[in-house]
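Form 12-C: Joint structure prediction
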Amino acid sequence: DAGITQSPRHKVTETGTPVTLRCHQTENHRYMYWYRQDPGHGLRLIHYSYGVKDTDKGEVSDGYSVSRSKTEDFLLTLESATSSQTSVYFCAISRGEETQYFGPGTRLLVL
Amino acid sequence: GENVEQHPSTLSVQEGDSAVIKCTYSDSASNYFPWYKQELGKGPQLIIDIRSNVGEKKDQRIAVTLNKTAKHFSLHITETQPEDSAVYFCAARLIQGAQKLVFGQGTRLTINP
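Section 2 - Result
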């Protein structure tokens, strides 16, 4: 998985609780991305980062925030989890050319 | 914004036959088109990609073709094997905005022995 780890790999939480997912890379890539994957929707971009402290929204950013204080870590936070945020979350990294490499994913269930 | 449509959503072929998956995109300025393979429980893995200045690219049993005029590109897998069974995603790179990709909905390919 191109030096990308995600934690936790599985999480069950309750509606209204905050949740933070972590993406860690050892490749020193500039760009990092968070996607969610749902049946029938492919992969949809939530947020991305183009450098430390530089982030921007993707197409499905409502209800999510991100932070990147170090090159190697990109955090995704659900401030108050809802059942509609039950999904599989993938982190990806890129050097800056087009190719993106994906992590193993985090399976999140919001009850 | 960019929109990518992928067909079919499921595809079943006999081992040894060929499989073709097609994608169309909406933004004529898009210039990079990767294909990913996703096995059960894993993250997507890049298998082949093509840039807009090339019409076809091959890598062993896998090939991708691009028709810029029609705004569609296709994945071709020849001599299919059971290990080709997976979900395949196409994507297109937005020309604007920090290397963002827009993905198709995915195709579940099943190779029947």
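Section 3 - Comments
Chain A touches chain B through 26 residues (CB under 8 Å). The first strand of chain A starts at residue 4 and ends at 7.
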